[in-house]
Amino acid sequence: MKRKLLFVTSEAYPLIKTGGLADVSSSLPIALHALGQEVRLLMPGYGPALAAGHFEPVKVLHEAQGIAILEGVLPGSEVPVWLLTHEQYFARSGNPYLGPDGRPWPDNAERFALLCHVAVEIAMDRLGLGWKPDLVHCNDWQTGLIPALLGDEPGRPATVFTIHNLAYQGIFPHGTFLRLRLPVRFWSPQALEFYGQLSFIKGGLAFADRLNTVSPTYAKEIQTKEFGYGLEGLLTHRRDRLNGILNGIDQEAWNPATDPLIPVNFDSRSVERRAFNKAFLQKSFGLTPDGDRFLLAWVGRLVQQKGIDLVIELLPKLIQWPVQLAIVGSGEARYEQILTQWTRLYPDRIALKLGYDEPNAHLVEAGADLFLMPSRFEPCGLNQMYSQRYGAVPLVRRVGGLADTVEDADPAHLSAGTATGIVFEEASASALERAILRALALYQDRASWRSLQRAGMGKDFSWQRSARCYLELYDRALHDRANADGLLRKVVRP
Ligand code: ADP
Ligand code: GLC
Predict the structure, then answer these.
(1) Which residues of 45-74 are buried (b: 16+ CB within 10 A; e: fewer)?
(2) Which of 97, 138, 161, 164 to mutate to test the pocket of ligand 2 (most atoms within 8 A of CB)?
C-alpha cells in the first residue's frame, strides 16, 4: 500500500545537522521512499539549509516577511523537501536552536509554532499545494504542537510522534502560551500545560494517535521516574500507544569499504588495514605514532547526557595507563575548556578537535581501538553502530539504544563469538574505569579483540528493517484514526 506521509522535522542531513535527529530525518524518509511510499519532508528553511540544496518557491505566504514554501529534494535522493522560510525566524546562520551565547534563541517558541501551524495547513491541504497526507510523522518538541492543533480538524490525517530525546521538551512560560494565541482549552494538564508552563512536547505525547521512541529499551525507561523527566505518568498512561523502534544507520555513508573520507578502506576480512588509519589518525591529531598504543576515542556532543564529565573525572588516572585519547566534539563551554587544558598538558597523549567535524568523525571511527559512549541516557545513539561497523570497539553504558545494540564481551558472548563491545552499568567514573581496564586487558589478547571487531562489523544496522517497523506503526495509527472517525460519525449521526 502506498501511503502519503508528511515527515516534519527541525533538521535533516545534509541540509542541517546538530545530532542524530538529522541522520534519522534523512535516512528514514529515503528508506520509506525505497519501500514505495510517497513521503515528503517539511522543515525550516535555515540559511545553511537553503545553501545546501536547490530550492524553488512554490507558495508565498507573506511577501514582506519572507514567509514562503520552497520545494526541492533531499540532496542525493528523490525525496521531496519543503522548506519553510521566514526572514526573521530562520534566515540566521549558526545553530538552529542556540544563539552565539549558547543559549536558546529567545524566539524559539514563535519559530517552531510557525512550523507547526504551517504543517497543519499543509496536512489539511489548505495551501493549494494539491497534496494531502494520510499521516503526519512528527519528531521531537519542535513539532509537538502539530498533533494538538490537528486534533479537532475534521478529516485530519493520522499522527505519529517520535521521541528522539525526552530531555528536550520545549518548555516556555505561560506568557508565551498567551502570546502564541493557542486555543485556551490547551491550558490544562491533560493538554499543553506542564506544571504551570507551556510544554511543546506534550502536544505530541498527549494528542498523537501513536507514539514511539528510537529504541525498545528507551521506550520502557521513559515510563520511569529516572528517565521520564516528569512525563513518565503521561507515557505510562499511553503505554499501549507507545513502542520503540531502533534507528538504523546509513550503511552507504558509513561503509569502511568505500568511505572516501578515510585514508585506507577495509572490511571485516582486512581489519588489519585499519592500522594505516590509526597511524594517520595519530599523526593528524598530534598523538605519538605508536601502532600498539591503545587508542581511545570520542565523537559527539560534550554534554552531561553523553557522560563526558565521567571521562574528565577519570583523566588523572587514565593518563597513567598506556593509552591515548582522541576527541572530536563540541558542547558545553566548561567541558571544552577543561579538555583543552588537558591537551595542553599532554599534547602527545590527549587530542581534541573542537567543533562539528565530519571528516575527522569518520577518521576516528576508522582508526581508533575503543570508542567511548558512557551515556547517562541514550534514546538510541548512532555512533556505537558506526563504530561497530568500522571495527572501533564500542564501550557503552547499558542504557537505551546502547543496551539494544551492543553485546558485552562477557564469557558467554565471547565464547559464542557474538560479543561486539564492552557494556557497563553504573554512571560513575569508577565503573567507567573498570570497564576501560577490562577493555585494555582484552586488547592484549589480539585474537579476542579481532573477534570483537569482526562480530561488530558483521552486524546489520540497515534502515530496511526499521523502516518496515515504521510502516506497521503508521498502519496502526491510520487504523486508530479510522476507528475514531467511525465512532465520531456514529455519535454525530445516530
Ligand atoms: P545525539 O543525537 O544525541 O547527539 P547520536 O549518536 O544519535 O547522538 O548522533 C550523533 C550524530 O552526530 C552522529 O552522526 C555523530 O557522528 C555526529 N556528531 C556528533 N558530534 C559530532 C562532531 N563534533 N563532529 C562530527 N560529527 C558529530
Ligand atoms: C537523539 C538522541 C540519540 C538518537 C537520536 C536520533 O538525539 O539523543 O540517542 O540516536 O536522537 O534518534
Answers:
(1) bbebbbebbebeeebebeeeebbbbbbbeb
(2) 164
